[in-house]
Amino acid sequence: METTLLFFSQINMCESKEKTFFKLIHGSGKEETSKEAKIRAKEKRNRLSLLVQKPEFHEDTCSSRSGHLAKDTRVSPEEAVKWGESFDKLLSHRDGLEAFTRFLKTEFSEENIEFWIACEDFKKSKGPQQIHLKAKAIYEKFIKTDAPKEVNLDFHTKEVITKSITQPTLHSFDAAQSRVYQLMEQDSYTRFLKSDIYLDLIEGRPQRPTNLRRRSRSFTCNEFQDVQSDVAIWL
C-alpha cells in the first residue's frame, strides 16, 4: 500500500515538473516574441525617421498644398497690368482667364465665361458625331429655357439655335458667343479691373480667399463617353 502511494506521488511530482517546464518554455517564448516586436517597431521608427528627413519626401507631400499657392503667385504684376489694356488680352492669357472666372463666381455669373469657353472648345470639334454631341451638351446646359447654366440671350438668337440644334455646324453658337462676349466686356470686365482680385495681382499682393455661396460646376463635354473635350486645359 505504501509502495503504491509512493508510486503515484512520484508520478504527480513528474507531472508537476513537466507543467512547470512547459510554462517556462511558453513564457520565455512570449517574452522573446515581445522583445522581437519591440526591436522591429524600433527599426520601423528609424526607417520612417530617415524617410522624413529626405528632401524629396517633403517635396512630394507638400506639392498639393503648395500648388495652390504657386498658382496664385505665379502671375507677375507686369503681366497682370497688360490684362487691363483689353478684354481680349485678359482672355487670351490662361492666368487672366482663371482670375476673371474667379471674379465672376463672386458675382454668381460664371455661366457666361463657362459658355464662352465651351464655344471655343466646340469650334475644335472634329467629325459630325462630335459636333452633334457637343452642340447638344451646350444647348442643354446653357441655351434652353431653365437650363442649369442658362445665359442671358435675346429671343431671336435663342430661337435660331433651337431650330438648328438638330443639324448643328461649327458656327451654330457664333452669334450667342459674340453677345455673351460683349456683355462680359462692357459690364463684368470693367468691374473686374476695380476688384480686389485684380488689384491684388497688379500690386503683387497674395491672393485673398473668396467666399462663395454656391459652387460652380465647370462645363465639360466629358459627360458624353464618345466626346473628347479640351475644356479642362482652360480651367
Automatic annotation (TrEMBL):
What is the organism field in this record? Mandrillus leucophaeus (Drill)
Q: Which UniProt keywords apply?
A: Signal transduction inhibitor
Q: Which SMART domains match?
A: RGS
**Organism taxonomic ancestry:** Eukaryota, Metazoa, Chordata, Craniata, Vertebrata
Which domain of life does this protein belong to?
Answer: Eukaryota
Q: Name one GO biological process term.
A: negative regulation of signal transduction
The residue range of the signal peptide is: none
Q: What is this protein called?
A: Regulator of G protein signaling 18
Q: Name one GO molecular function term.
A: GTPase activity
Alphabetized SUPFAM superfamilies for the sequence: Regulator of G-protein signaling, RGS
GO CC annotation, single: cytoplasm
Q: Which InterPro entries match?
A: RGS (IPR016137), RGS_sf (IPR036305), RGS_subdom1/3 (IPR024066), RGS_subdomain_2 (IPR044926)
Every copy of the RGS domain together lies at 86-202
